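Slide 14.
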Amino acid sequence: MYTYSQLLLRNLFFALSFSACVAIAGAIIVALQADERQDQHRKTLLALDKTANVNENSKDFAQQLAVLNKYHLLTITDNSDTTLVNHQQNSHILTDFILPASSEVQLPNRGLVVRFQLGDQQGVILLRNIVIAVFTLSCLFIILAAFFSIRRYRRLAGKINQQIKRDLATIISGQEQATGDIDNDNEIDLPEIQQHLTELKNLIAQKISTTQVLEQDAYIEPVTKLENRHRFIQFFENADSRADFGVLAITRCSELQTVNQIHGYHEGDNYIRQVAEIMRVAISRYKGAKVFRLNSSDFATLLPNVTLKSAKNFANDLTGRFNEYQQASDLDSVAYTGLVYFDNDKPLGELLALADTGISVAQTQQVNAWYAQTDTSILENSSSSYGNQNWRQEIDSVIENQRIKLLIQTIKPTSPNNRVYSEVLARFSNSNDDILPTASFFAMAEKLDKIVAVDRLIIETVITQVAQKNMQDQFFGVNISARSINDGHFLIWLERRLLRDATIASKLVFEITEYGLQQNIKTSKNFIDMIHRVGARITVERFGVGLTSFKFFRDLKPDFIKMDSSYTRDIDEDKNNQYFLRLMVDLAHRLSISVLAESVESQEEKFALERLFIDGCQGFYIGKPKSL
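Slide 15: predicted structure.
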């Protein structure tokens, strides 16, 4: 849109052009009229010459002719070339352009030669006045037109602005109609602008739709369709979006790792979706409550304008729903919840630490329990937190009272000639005979330096039960931590214990992660050599994550490697993993190492692994865990 000065200059140029056109047209008209008058005057002179008397004085005629007519140029000579009249006015641009060329007429009866050019001073003045008037009126008109045009443009711009604001608000609010319906609401009566606005709206709607898709990818967790940790932090730290006070609840799906390992990742996703749906139903009675998925196993629930006392009803309801789901599924527990009160004075990091401590306390109580953490002083010394204290007491109680239950999950050989085994899985219970969350139990045992004692308890229990149940005809895999194989006292105890029951020791396969072996290669080699001396075997599990060189395994000489589930999952569709596994199997067999696959969840995966010459398969499709 033009500014007022720009519009004024533009219109002034048009006015000058129009005035020039008027001047040229007027000059042409006046010139044509002057030419016609000059021709008529020539004829008049010839007619006067025919009526001349013999006695008439030519000189007097010439003088009278000069006086009676207005000439711009007049020259009269007689037959003797004597100049009787010589008259000429000053010339300027208009007269040179308007007046016709001079004409010459011979008057034989009077003996005169007349050369003349008629003047037209009135026509020139009239033309000048007309041009001045036209230019003046044009200037006045363009000033007024520019003023009204600017006003019109501003009104139009205002309408366009309002139209765009309204349409943007409609599009952003997600209530946009079909394009044709929106166009009918336009207040602008200019078709071209309406067309451009429609194109602009469609473009903006497309961009907003694309942005919403990207935002969904960035902030929506794909399994549960809940908002993720980034959205939770964004929502919580925006004081305008949340309440001034309320309760924050962190719910941890304690069995996710166990479900993934035993039942497979598809069942793990179903487990997470069920927990998410339970939480959606639980918060439906609380106005403004929201639930987020923070990570693979943790959910965050915000209950705005709710006191901690009122939130306990929510926690009890959640525990009841978790208990119902647990009874309907093959799970030892579902989830544990930590509650903490929040207001504007408490930072998010502190609240999450308190809620995490609450979860640790809840996990040492009954199944699917909750705990409201109100003591903030525990943050001053994390080693003395309630959660750590409770877990330490619980782990000591489990070890002292040997509250352990053993399950086994079969590894099925792909060929009758392949030697495989069944993996032993340990479960622990508290004094009320409630199963403790397995993943949390091992994590806290590692954190509190109790993992070596836990490994001794598992190994001792396995050897004892195999002997009592006379199961020496089978092979059993026992998991052992990296901390234990780096403990000299543990290795001495283990060697003596296995030598005491050499027959059972020959039926044991100790599983340790690839990462655990890499921490101290010398210690790992000593451990494997000792295991082989007593007749037991070694499996390197979760193989492929660290991509350790095969020279490392050639020196350590394990008996089995168990491929990480990330390689076996959907192996029937993943060509890259098929190629990698075929290469690993070929290299392992050259070193006389058997290759196993875990987390086999479908018949298609099993068939694909068999075609790759895997020695054994383990997973939910092969067999569920069962009591030893």
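Speaker note: Residues 121-172 form the longest helix (52 residues).
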